[in-house]
Amino acid sequence: FGFEYSDKHQSLAEIQRVLAPGGLFAAVCHHRDSFTLNASRKELDIYRQGLEKNNIFAAARIYYDAKEAQSPAAPEKLKAVNYAVNRLRQAHAGHPCCDQMVEALSSIIRQAKTTPAQQLIRQIDELERDFRGAAQRLKDLSDAALSPTDMDDLVSQCLKLGFSEAHSGEIMHSPSDIAGYTLLARI
What we know:
The chain is elongated. It is of the alpha+beta class. It is built from seven helices and three strands.
């Protein structure tokens, strides 16, 4: 697991170098059309909207800055938070990832009467970092996923490096849902 995140050609050369005669290298890799990647793409769309397009966390920070400064613009800034959250909900209603983002921010907003604005802003910053990290992990997964051509290239690379045999295959989640690829190479 994880082979596809590496420099695959460099990794194969090192694997070939360290395997003993008769040794077997086996990897399970993400498939570009797997059910996991399809679900991840949907979540990435939600993260893009919530973190970039309608950045609900930035809107909340702006509101709390205005509220703390006792700005007359604070009510309008609160409307902007509600607008951003509602746009996210409208686009992704009922999706657990959307619900999680909205509930996490709502939990902080519910503390407004009892918690200083600067503390709420720190919580919002931390929450946004967490969601950006989750989005980056999904992007990395998507970027690392392999196509049939990628797998053919890896099998060819194995044989060029001196592996005596190399094969790729598919792992199925169900009869109609692909889960990933296998790569087997023997010295």
